[in-house]
Design brief:
single chain; four-stranded antiparallel β-sheet; 9 helices; about 30% strand
Length: about 300
């Protein structure tokens, strides 16, 4: 395999990337900031819920992989012949060392402890000796592998509250289920009936597959599958959609039930409290790395 490395100005990146993939035979294309780790480095993405500072980097490195050097050289020649590509520069064309990409990807995901005895463990790892309750979960297209603080806080809340309250979890809803990790955790901790819903069909399929792999019985579907009241409602999304969903989510919380929200930055706490105030009183019950967990109980 051979890598073609190009230096491109901001206004050429999208056209060059599309041409490499669609017309010039590239196996893959990636783009990165050419000025990364320097004084000229620019942030491309803003905080969650905030617009990006700009559409792209001022200068980008485009890495395109080809099956051999002939194809890479021909692609570079044809690309640079285009009028709009006059400012693109070839940095290098060089072989890429073969790697076991599956093993390399797997090495990036280690078991994640939630509590001393509750762990998230990828299928290729041995179980840690301390793990008495385990979710086997492999990284996939859907969000939720247990590595992000928002997911860990929801899982930690579940494990700690289940010690005294799981008998009351007759119905649980995971709204925006992603990989299904929160729904699976609730089921493993004693929830009797669990619904997991998401607007993304691939997330629904991921949830079903992960539930099956963990021997968990739950119902996964699109949002209209959520019906009636629930003793526990999870929503680990982001602050902006959580605010918009306030009436819907609160409407699903049964009397005496709990609402657990995540995907919220510390600075967004007051916004969420105001958005949910007509229905429930939110409080911050956990925090990690600038993220917070907010919960509310429906008064009985």
């Amino acid at each position: 395999m051979v890598e073609l490395l190009l230096l491109a100005p901001e206004d050429c990146v999208e056209s060059a990337s599309d041409a490499l993939i669609d017309e010039l035979g590239a196996l893959s294309v990636s783009v990165e900031d050419a000025d990364a780790d320097s004084a000229a480095e620019q942030a491309l993405f803003g905080e969650p819920g905030m617009p990006a500072p700009r559409a792209g980097w001022q200068r980008s490195l485009i890495r395109a992989l080809f099956a051999d050097e002939t194809l890479a050289t021909e692609a570079a020649t044809l690309l640079l012949a285009q009028d709009w590509a006059s400012e693109i520069r070839v940095q290098s064309i060089q072989p890429v060392e073969d790697q076991d990409w599956v093993r390399l990807t797997q090495s990036q995901f280690a078991p994640v402890p939630i509590t001393p005895d509750f762990w998230i463990v990828p299928s290729w790892h041995e179980l840690p000796p301390a793990a008495t309750r385990v979710i086997r979960l492999d990284p996939g297209l859907a969000f939720g592998t247990g590595t992000h603080p928002t997911t860990r806080m929801c899982l930690r809340w579940t494990a700690l509250q289940a010690q005294t309250r799981s008998a009351g979890w007759t119905r649980v809803l995971d709204y925006g289920c992603g990989s299904g990790i929160l729904a699976i955790a609730a089921a493993l901790h004693g929830a009797q009936h669990v619904d997991a819903v998401d607007i993304d069909p691939s997330a629904v399929e991921s949830t079903r597959a992960n539930a099956s792999a963990n021997g968990v019985d739950l119902h996964a579907g699109l949002p209209d599958a959520a019906q009636g009241d629930y003793a526990l409602v999870f929503a680990n999304i982001l602050a902006t959609p959580l605010k918009l969903l306030a009436p819907l989510l609160c409407g699903h919380v049964a009397v005496g039930g709990d609402l657990v929200l995540a995907g919220i930055l510390e600075r967004q706490a007051d916004e969420l409290k105001i958005a949910y105030a007509p229905w429930l009183t939110l409080t911050v019950t956990d925090s990690e790395d600038g993220w917070i967990l907010m919960t509310a109980r429906h008064p009985s």
